[in-house]
User: Fold these one by one.
Assistant:
Number 1:
Amino acid sequence: MSDLSSVVEDCPLKWSLSAQVKADPEKCPAGSPGPGKVRISIADREDESGTIVLRHALAGKSGESPVECLLTGHEAMSYYVSAQAENGHWVGKKAVQVSLAPGHPQTVSLELDFRAIPHGIIDSSNADLLLERGDVLIKFAAQDSTFTEKVIMAGEKAVKKLSGLFHEGIKKGDPTCFHVAIYLGEGRTAEAHGGDLSTARVGAREIDAHAGFLFRVYRSQDRALAEAAAKVAETWATGRMKYLVPALVPFHLASFGPQAHGEALVFGQESGRKGGPLRFEAMFCSQFVIAVYQAAAVAKQLRQEPGMISTDVQMPAGLDLHASNSSPLAFHARLEGASASWRYVDEVLVRPQQDANAQTAPRARPGKDVTEQVQALGNPTQKRWPSGEWIYARNPWSLEAFEGKIYVGSGNSNNPAPAANAGPVDLWALDAATGTFPEKPEYEVPDEQVDVFRILSDGLWIPGHDSKVTARNDSRVKGESKYEQFKRLLKTAVTFPADWAAGNVHHKIGSQWMTMNNIPNGIHVYDVIDFGGALFAAIATVMGGMVARSNDRGHTWEVMLTKPFPYSRTRTFFVLDDDTGPRLYAATNGGRIYRFDGRSDFAEMTVRFFPGIADLKDVFVARPAEYRKQVVYIAGQKIIDHDWRPLGFFAAARPDSARALPLPGGALARDLVVHDNVLYVLASTQPTSRSTRVHVFGTRDLQSFAEVCFFDAETFARSFETLNGDFYFGLGCDPDLLQPQTGRILKVPASALS
């Protein structure tokens, strides 16, 4: 049933906005799902942000819904109205702008188009349902943190601002695009890709390598040409050619002049050369894709006229560019302007949130949709880090319930941007009884980041993620001159030995916090645990990963080595029973597991602790929790220095019996909470390219998972906690896609779950 109200009668003192959804069933293959329930958004802006209200319509077998009222009002307003089927297979062509004034009721018609892949979310397993060989993929929106791609982004913005340096078609371009690839089929692309310059090459990749990025897809109307271009791409993309950093390309003329004709002839002549044209040692992304298409086009002409010269070269519309001078922006503009030869297919998102073992994920009945019951409790860390790159420091890395409060972790201990070395950290604690934060933080933690909390036998502890005992300096957040930046960096060079001299642990005793800055060389303290009457700390020093042990509750420490070599880090602890009783284990980066011998040594174990994940270089055990004499944990993969992205969810009764626990729908686990003999798992999926779905799953046996609830949000929830039957969530973001909602604390009351 539709949840729209009936049509409002005309009234001179107010306006009404009504809508009808229309979908043509003839446009989809036989057996495909119809529109069904359609979500209608009324928003302030064309990109559907600033949504004012959501309504639903129910399209019948004819594909049309009744004309029904969406909204009424008395003051003149302007909105954008859009529609999309909840099953993801039908999407509105574009948002419809409406201007509303009293006495003028309006009805809009919202037409839906069919898409083969629901919600436009692709990965290597389903890409062939939408993409075809030879499709040109232009990457948009999300920014990668690598230097080489940022160079292109900066150049393109400069060209857009200084219009006139490019040909007229630049006006149709999009300044946010910065990468181009050609699709080969079976989930593979060929491209010149940047990133680490030591490994950057022209080669083939899995589409999954672009997880989290948006693409616009363009398709050549000449399918024979597209197939030929894909074959050239496969021939050239062997890794022989290196990646060329196109720093000055946006400032060169991209028109198809005499030099471009000569270059295209060379491409055609060497279209079959393995590894690409001999004279080219390197190419950049758009250059490569244009070149393989030009090679295919010219090779066909050469077969008909072997003796042709450069002035005889004919180039199809959309490809008439100087490949070596054409940025992604220039190529995009040309494709947009060549609608007779190229067709825009769709905008797709490469699936960014899926468990590594999603192919074996079970089905489950959907839980309760609590989107309308979610309560926003505030964003306390926004006071310290209001905007810009500092949004990243607002990430609520952990939430912890203790003595009627919800403690919120935040900060950032990464050395590179965004929000590099953001400490010391204000520690905020929500009063769960009133649902409010105090005027001032409870404590200033002298570390760059509060990453986890641990409730031990004598209260609440915080491992010191990256010591920051020197003076606080907020000038970077407010903005600083180059001179101020120089002074700050000079001061940092002088004071960093004090920060590195010893690691911290922070302990709440009664109403007071105490910082113990005495773990030898403990640059990073990642975890603390009680075991065998002693306190253990997982640390990283300049020598490598270590474990510190204290027999006097943190006043003095002795250190034991786990994984040697610089940049090795002991990240987490967990306990498992064997025939001898409880045993303490330490997890380091590289997917390694070490077992404590009960005396003074941690020995590495040869075990497969992350089944289904091949590359363990930057993987470690994240969020370990004990449940039913097993350890449950998330495979965390390092992003920059210390932060991580989840890869999968696992459990182990013994170190050699680890097994994957893929969640329903391939949802990606982000946090774990054990409460009242139930393991709750916070997870996320990406139902559309513009929204994230937050899930809570529960299990009592680690065999089956039931979805407790879900809600839609602008970004994922990084952490969660439960107290008195209520759930609390902290919204987060990744460093390559900062979200203004980061740091917001939400609550789903127990009453919403019944």
Note: Helices lie at 147-161, 223-236, 258-269, 285-304, 328-336, 475-478, 482-500.
Number 2:
Amino acid sequence: MSTDSNTKYVGKAPSRVEGPLKVTGQAKYSAEFDVPDLVYGYVVSSPVAKGKIRKIHADKILALPGVLQVFSHENVPTLAWFDRSYKDDVAPGGSPFRPLQDDEIKFSQQPVALVVAETFELARYAASVLEIEYEQEKHETDVEALREKGQEPGSGKTGYKPPVRRGNADKGLSKAEHRIKQEYVHGTQHHNPMEIFGATVHYHPDGKLTVYDKTQGVFNCQQYLKKVFGLSADKARVVNLFMGGGFGAGLRPQYELYLSVLAALELKRSIRLSLTRQQMFSLGHRPHTLQTVELGTDASGALVGVKHKAVHETSRFEEYTENVVNWSGMLYQCPDVHLEYEVVPLDVFTPLDMRAPGAATGSIGLEVAMDEMAYAAGIDPLEFRRRNYADRDQNEDKPFSSKKLREVYDEGARRFGWDKRKMEPRSMREGNRLVGWGMAGGVWDASMQKAAAKATITADGKLTVSSAAGENGTGTYTVMTQIAAETLGLPMEAVTAKLGDTTLPEAPVQGGSWTAATVGSAVKSVCEALGEKLLKLAQKMDDSPLKGAKPEDVEFVNGLIRLRKEPRQSVVLRDVLQVSGEREIEADSSVMPNPLNMQKYSMHAHNAVFVEVQVDEDLGTIHVTRVVNVVAAGRIINQKTARSQVLGSVVWGISMALMEETVMDHRYGRYLNHNFAEYHVPVNADVRDIEVHFVEEEDPHVNPLGVKGIGEVGLLGVAAAITNAVYHATGKRVRSLPLTIDKLL
């Protein structure tokens, strides 16, 4: 028998298993589930940024036929008292926001009332005419004006790492042959996934709830509901089967969940609550950030000092933190490093993790500064990075579990044609367009969390694997199916993956690029456990060639259980199932990170981005005409979905560099462009040639699958590379993003 396998799926590029459901409209999102006796809610938002509610005139609204209730701080029941009840799995330090619990206004667009009616149209109309009197107070929303009030975080969220300081950066910089110091700024950004936040709560006759919520973590939401409303797990089932984009916006329970469950419990009715696009700008954001970077090199171009300070906003009631500056002590070799990080409390809603939180921001400051430093030292930007390559994580003083960044540099430079680049700015052009080539890179944590999974195989050879992890568009259904099918040697068509339901085995929130590593490892583990049960059944068959074989002696391939060293010695898996007489066989398993490996190694993914821009010399318009993004992220499970993740990251990076910004009118403490018409993101005409390539790494330490996750690392360096390319094209260095036309002219 040939040892070739048709069931080796890991590393291949199968299409999404849920694709047909999505393109035919059969995939149901949270605000689309049909439930009986449904009523509708509509949120009323505060027009002021700070103050108190003096009076809510609900009587006229309640007199409208079909209006059921106007919920506000004046009539909601008393719920959990302590802050800990409102803290979710990824909450920062401080006191979480409690909707409708008092008369205080903490930020603009704060939900102040919920109108519930028999129809959506009536709820929306009633909300629009509800009169509310406010007592307005002076607000503060400008982080640039208040930067001197910055303070070191005292109680950051889980995962926050205080900045490192090693050696003597000031002393190193004082001896530098070449030296630069600059400030880099980017404004507020909002997640803006295509699907708006919404919830459908099914109130069952026995008082139990099935909550279909837009979330990146159903168990996180269930725990929140249990603590806030005093519900047991069986009375608060949370479901999210599909998500139309999250990017971090769904990591924490948002207020549509709280308000819809509150209304369902009080009215004993099923309810649907969807936010508006404008209200999506009240849910958290990537914070407006100011960075100061100072670098120095010796005569050979080796870094002798690095200083990096970041200041960004947080709310007054929670202390949101990001790992912004830490990467500057890790990505390049330098003995003397001083990193600082501060937050400024303002009258805004708490910022929220957005794709590659901290690193996406920090890489702009560091990588643009590295480009400036390279020019100051007279060294090609790529060569400058090679000369300062870090073979060891200096922050943690650990070796990397694997790192192929040198190979990434080489592959990216070769595919882009970097050797043809002229160093001098304004030295390349096509007609009236100035041509610029820039590059940058990034590093991101390779994390794994604790998770569980279940596997069930039936007598007809159909396998179901399940875990409560989410699917926000990254390809989790497909990756789970690939891993399960390969582990048990089945065709992918014989495998069904179930996700996003608190009745399934527990899994963490989907974020941090850890889902494939975490849930994928759980699926592999549970299928191996199921395989051991199947092997024992196979050994009970008459004349079984597998008698005496241990699990490590066999493999599951092409519907067979066979000996690894003698593949002709095999049994048909379906025969095993039918002879066993069992209708179905189950296995459960859970996984967690290896603490010894975590102590011993630094685990990270890396990338490098090469960009070509063309800038109209007369108009200043910028066109990103070519991008090559090369990523080293361990083992790639699915080449197609992985490439898709990085393609999306590049488009996001173009947006971050050239157009994306939420503009605050500080007179009112309110975002001006809280809509898709004026919050600019790339369209087809903005996106040209994008190449994505992977340099695979064998990493036995990072997790059982050897994967590192790519949902975030692909974004890193894109905005910085574009900024650097614009300098190369024009000779003008812009240090404030987005890089709009007015900043070039």
Note: The chain has 16 helices and 34 strands.
Number 3:
Amino acid sequence: MWNRSLCCATVALLTAWGCNRGATNETPQYVEAARRAEAGVVAPLADDTSDDIRSWVDGQVVTDWAMEIARRDHAIQGYLDDSDPGRAAKYGFRSGQHPQLAWSWFRDNPVGFNGVPFVLFKTILDLDPDHQNPALRRLARIWKRESALPLGSGQATRWTIDHIGMGPNPSDYVDGVARPDSERRSPLPFGFAFENQRTFEPLSAAETTLYDGRLLARRVFSNTSLLLAKMRTTDHEDNWERDRQGFGSPGNMDRVFLSCAACHVGRVVVDGKIKFLPGMPNTEIEAQYFSKLLMLTAAAFVESGFDPASTTPVNPANIRPNTGAVRALYTEMLDKARQRPETLYGGSPADIARAKIQALAIADEFPSVMQDLIAIGVKTHFIYYVVAKNNAYRQPLPDVLEDRPGQMDAFGIASGLVAIHTRRPDNSFLEFVRRDNPQSPIFTGFSKANGLPADVPGMTDAVTDAKAAAERIFKNIPAWAPPVPAPIDVKSVNWAVDRYHANWDGNQGASSRTLASGASATGDPRMVNVRIHEPLNPFINNLPAPPYPFRSVDLARAREGKGVFRENCASCHRSRNETIYPAAKLGVDPNRTRVNTSVSRYGLAALVTEACQIYGLNNKGQSGADWCVPPGSWQERLDEYFRDTPRRVVEGTNGYKADMLHGIWAQAPYLHNGSVPTLGQLLCPATRPQRFLRGNLRYDEALVGFEWADRPTARYGPNEILLVKEFDTAVAGKANSGHTFGSALCPDTSGLDPVRDRREIETRIRQSSAGALLEYLKTL
């Protein structure tokens, strides 16, 4: 159960509502909503023509907002728990799949399998920042940083993982308050996940003795020469055809990577307690900073040949491992599994068995495991420091990897993956592209004469040799790499059925959004967890938006604001709006609309296609094997995976889509780049601050957005993470200009400073037509 205490607490309110509800309004859309509610089905209200504030739960008029919060929460929980096959079919799930399964995979399974083995990762995460071994002390201080606000009660510590922006698992909360670390059920912060098809049974006393003996025996590391040899290279010599059956599967090790929930479950503080928001953006996570931590970890095991701060490519042949650091971690891991196994997965007999078995599996392949870890670091360095810092991020700001909680430069950075995969030893990526479509511009040339929007220098001619095609992509990176930095906010995924395009700039079709995101996040189509992505499209299509959780909704003003919305907003913010509004016309920062070039478009689409085809081949003849293949011709599939945004740039039509505003209250800060902290400031441009704080979970109920001016002086609770950073709109890609369509609704605030005169600005806005609109937006 996601929030059992919430459901129990709402029974009285729901009962009271049921006794006092009036007759159903006979307008067809509300009658249909009532029928859905009786059948236990959730859906957004279609064609809401009433002047009243209506509930999407059943179409009834909302007269008590506190009661409506409880009703919506109850309906959402019902959807997350729903395993009924009849309702699942109505939602669009394939037979055998349903919301409960999809929510479990969304929350608890990794999007890919190329992460660090769990036992190794947990060993690193648990290292003492004051460890007596200097190599392990250095490693510990990569993952833990000193905070000014101590964490925990009793023997509090200043060494925290606040800087990652990932807090405790929801299962580790009691009535909205996080348990102490010593009492938690989940071994990792929420958003880290692993998957293994094997089940682990408790060990007998004799088996425990046997495993402990094997762990102790492996403590004497005898493979130093092998380790040195294997760690000088950063790539396995995969053979695509030979190894394909093993692609897209977890193998025999639990490997830690991000789940969908890492980025797409938000949090807010309500009455001093944490409330989780399924489908909403995690406004705290530093997702790409996690990649930096992995890169720094890899560098900690290298004595020479890998400078993580350099912007020149690493030559794998020059890498010299730090054998002292490697041996120290190896010993620490084995001792932890043998002497303190309960500190890995947990204290149950099955958890302890898993810890010992998994530790031995890692020990048996430790040279390869360390090779993989260093390879992750080298590839991360290439994508971020060689490609991005030499092109889009030539200027020191914004940082290529951090200082943006709740944000990432997803597609701009992902373009570097195209270059990475041209370096496969067997050249299998380009061979795949040729098999998939020999008429791809990757072979026929990127030129206007070939139907492309622009010539790409060095890449206009046709080539037939796959190695030549790979080489020219790699050699001409400056000609096609993203030209500008474009950090953007993590998007909500609630009620995605109302979205025709995916992503801020509409650069993908709706059906491809889940797998394309998973493939980009994983970085390797051979390692994508394609299976879990299938039910995620119908899941997010029907996932309701969480209700505004504060009782401060003036329903009379909200009714007034509903009329304001119809007159000023509804023509754009409508269901399945296909229009892309040019950035130049909107006046907003255009960078996100410019990041995908033709080469990156075709290359990234090929990576997603490869992941999909691997899954299809490995599951041939099984139900759902081809779920990820968009309908239509090759060109139509390409357009679904990645729209032709480079053509928009050439034509001057590059811009952004307008979505329905379901749960807009939880999507702060606003605009695609998160440059405006509250809805009030979005409507009234003169009140927008140049600098503000991001990551705070306390809420500004007056202007509608997360608290943006007052830095927290205490944690939300003694065991909570806290990550708040300043956002500067003067930095490239972070401009807060544009979207001035609500300015006519706003009061005169001339001469008022957004921060110093905040309370006066709040008063004036709330008394204006903009204030009425804010009240209505809270109810969506």
Note: The chain has a mean pLDDT of 93.
